[in-house]
Amino acid sequence: MLTQLSTFFRYSVNSLLRRKLRSLITIAGVASAVAVLYSLLAFQRGYQLGLSRELEKLGAHLLVVPKGCPYDAASIALHGANWPCYLPSKYLTMVTQTQHVAEAAPVLMTAFYDDATQSSRVYCGVLPNILALKKQWTITGSFPKTGEALTGMDIASKNHWTVGQTVKMADIQTPVKISGILNNTQGPDDQFVFIPLGDAQTDFKHADQFTHILVKLDHPDHLEEVVRSLRGCEAGLEMNIVPLAHVFKTIQGLISSTRLLLACVTLAALFAAAIGLSNTVFMSVTERTREIGVLRAMGTERSNIFALVWMETLIMSLIGAAVGLLGATLFEGLVETWLRARLPFVPNGPLMSYEWTIALLAIAAAAIIGGLAGLAPSMRAAGLSPVEAIRRAEGGV
Amino acid sequence: MQPSDQPVVQANKLVKSYPRGSEIVHAVVDIDVEIQQGEYVAIVGASGSGKTTLLQLLGGMDRPTSGTISIAGKEISKLSDRELTRLRREQLGFVFQHFGLLSTLTVAENVALPAILNHKPNHSRVDELLERTGIIHRRNHRPSELSGGEMQRVAIARALINEPKLLLADEPTGNLDSATSERILELIGELNKDGLTIVVVTHNEKLAQCAHRIIQLSDGRIVNTA
What we know:
heterodimer; A: ten-stranded mixed sheet; B: alpha/beta; six-stranded mixed sheet; four-stranded antiparallel sheet; 7 helices; globular
């Protein structure tokens, strides 16, 4: 059995080598389709992971934001920017007093555009209770008191700030002392400057206001109940209650058109690859009609003829899959740059997640496409009778 | 091989017709033939006389329109496609005018293939047959590297690998020059002397004259048996 299988395999490989260019073009078609599929799946996975990682880093189950577009607000809270409207401080009490709210951390976020670096500097006025939400934070130094600042690692490194140093920040009137630097969070916090909420309200002239409240529940199961309570409270009409799970779904929805476009391209590529494969194998069967006739005359079972031809299709599919995976991995950077430029919201960190399970899925898809594309030519080859095949190859009766 | 009373092939009232456009072609008409074990039979006739069709019928490659054929004691109309395929693989050996070697396999692999298909690979027999047909030195060559005579020797070795009861050869010297044909003729003669039953379709007079019996066909009918 093993000898038979290895002979069939060698025969199939050699048959493909007979028409090298044709086989190469067919394999390239499969490789392109697999590369697109692999990139789409890696993007899908990478985007989901990136987004959920980013939402998780907020450390909250709910986001309370001023009236307006709640998802714009969520996006601002995630990446940092200027807010168009504010929440009065008194709302914090209502939120805090709601049953099942374990922690409510108010934030006053302000951003200033720096022409020199052509980037925004984001300040977050916070209370010490933010530490209850940001469990993943580790601070070199301490949480800031009045006149002090805690900075993200990237911004500190860019400005050469060190713990204990007193610095003059362009957007704050009085110099501040760097009380601590966050260890790398691999998130937007690395770019932010955290100062006490009172200082932020004074410096940025928003007394008794903040931009959003990060809310942590005593248990995620109480989410709907808390959302209902907050929406029904006195300030319910003046604020938006945004569960972060909904933010996840909504942001995912925002990229659905890009995903749909990529899915269409993938389907078209897979379809084209299947047609290419089928056509190549059909041609190969036609060219080898006499050979198939001889094989049948020698006593080769129809099932073996089917297996021989089908194996050729599978070999091309699998080689195509391997080349496609390699290509997608090599050109990962290009694909990521292209996608980043076209998406309305992109989480920090890698956008593509190339995992072995996804690679296996892409290989399986290639095998299925190859298997299906090879069915018709394999059946045609297996259906030839020895006499018919020899007669047809000789061009007559 | 021990002679036996039962004929290797027995055909009665054999008819093979097939459509060609709007007309029906009668390739073989009303043929009765019996081939005994150890016999060497040549089928001769003009082009289109039905020689190859008869050979294909006798070799179980095709089924008759009417009439019966028994090969190695088995009535082929009663066999399924799978059983007929098995019968060809186990009991018959074929040699074609165009050699029919698989260009992607080596000489040894070509010879071994029917045995592999029969789930009985036997490397020593491959070498033995290549030795016998005088082609052992080309063992690892591809068919494209061989001369016509060498290819036909490989084809004969391949036909013998499963120790068939009957060797069927369709114009085995048709594509060869006279000197090469002579050597193939000698080889076929030797195989027959060793007891192998052989049926050859040929235009080659020398090949036909070596046969024990010559069946002459014309328009699908036997017109002479000598």
